[in-house]
Specification:
By secondary structure, the protein is mostly helical. The chain is 65% helix and 8% strand. Strand 1 (78-84) and strand 2 (90-96) form a beta hairpin.
């Protein structure tokens, strides 16, 4: 849970909400809290927060904050600038890399790409079954056809959502 000294009640609820949301999605509660803090407090490089500030805000160690910030950077949800602080030490200031819409768009583009790769791999497996042995592999052939059709539906769905988000937010 976030440190009570930094946030008022609505801010705490907002940060906790994102913690719960990220946990439901298979990430850690703390990763979601950091995302919420950055999206609320650090939308530009000038507003960036360093690892120590974030660690204090979430009441965790600097190493935990650093590890989770690196994960958010890897996911392209946030970015950082490096600068020299008043003690002549290099430090990173973290901030949101894009708007929520841009993050969502990037995520759907990734899902489309990933789904197309999966479809191609499934087709490759299907194509490796010799035509004269189709009867011996009927069960897997039908399953592969079914999976390919489902992945095509996912690609269509992701593409429609991506198009809709562009229409709504551009």
């Amino acid at each position: 849970m976030s440190n009570t000294n930094f946030f008022n009640k609505p801010e705490k609820e907002y940060i906790q909400l994102f913690g719960k949301l990220y946990k439901k999605r298979g990430f850690t509660n703390t990763l979601g809290q950091i995302f919420a803090i950055l999206s609320y407090k650090a939308n530009t490089p000038e507003e960036g927060l360093d690892q120590q500030e974030i660690a204090r805000m979430i009441d965790r160690s600097v190493s935990t904050a650093s590890r989770l910030l690196n994960k958010l950077v890897d996911m392209q949800y946030c970015n950082f600038i490096e600068q020299i602080n008043e003690n002549d030490r290099r430090e990173r200031k973290y901030y949101m890399s894009k708007s929520i819409n841009q993050i969502a768009s990037r995520r759907f583009k990734f899902l489309i790409k990933e789904s197309k790769e999966l479809k191609n791999e499934l087709i490759s497996i299907q194509d490796e079954i010799p035509k004269n042995q189709q009867d011996n592999h009927e069960e897997i052939s039908k399953h592969l056809e079914y999976l390919i059709s489902q992945v095509e539906k996912l690609i269509e769905f992701y593409s429609r959502v991506l198009k809709l988000s562009k229409e709504l937010f551009d």
